Amino acid sequence: MVFQIRNEHGKQLYEILEGISESSWYWSIVPEESYYSSSNNLNDFRSSLFSESETIMDGKSFMKHISKEDYYLIFADIKAFPTLESIITINNETDFMKSSCKLGLIVVDSVQVIIYSREKQILLDISERAESLGYRDIRFLNNKDTISAVWGWM
């Protein structure tokens, strides 16, 4: 699925995932461009939201981390796994299908959010949440569109 968030400082990851993320999940975070806010100026950043190297966080720590202060998302690539031992690098659809990844979330260009999951209920819950938050252009992707959007090939 894909939708548009507001291009502003806030706690968008927390807004999207609150009530959906399970505390038992482990989050794999690829270092991208997301920053803590210094002010509401879109170009005024204090520090990186996530580590500059790939990071793994347990569910409670992850949710606390994304809820404590405002940040500005430019690019983000995070994935939820059911156990620490199940975390793998996912580079393509084959890797994803072989994995036990519960949810992938990608932010592109500060506004576009792409969500992928094999679990229909997760997608429906996030769609409902996005709609309640006033996010725009919420739509489900077919398999071909998802592959293209997430891994850049058809």
Write the layout of secondary structure elements.
Layout: E1 2-4, H1 12-17, E2 26-30, E3 34-37, E4 45-48, E5 55-58, H2 59-65, E6 71-73, E7 76-81, H3 93-98, E8 103-108, E9 112-116, H4 120-132, E10 136-139, H5 143-151
Antiparallel strand pairs: 1-9, 1-10, 2-5, 2-7, 3-4, 3-6, 7-8, 8-9
Please mark out the parts with pLDDT under 50 across 5 or more consecutive residues, or reply none. Answer: none
Average of per-residue pLDDT values? 88
The shape, in one word, is globular
* Ends apart, CA distance between termini: 16 Å
Supply the number of helical segments. 5
Strand fraction band? 25-35%
| E-strand count | 10
Helical residue percent band: 25-40%
Described by strand count, sense and barrel closure, the largest sheet is: 7 strands, antiparallel
Sheet/helix structural class: alpha+beta
The whole-angstrom Rg is: 15 Å
Query: What is the H/E order?
Result: EHEEEEHEEHEEHEH
Strand order of the largest sheet: 5-2-7-8-9-1-10
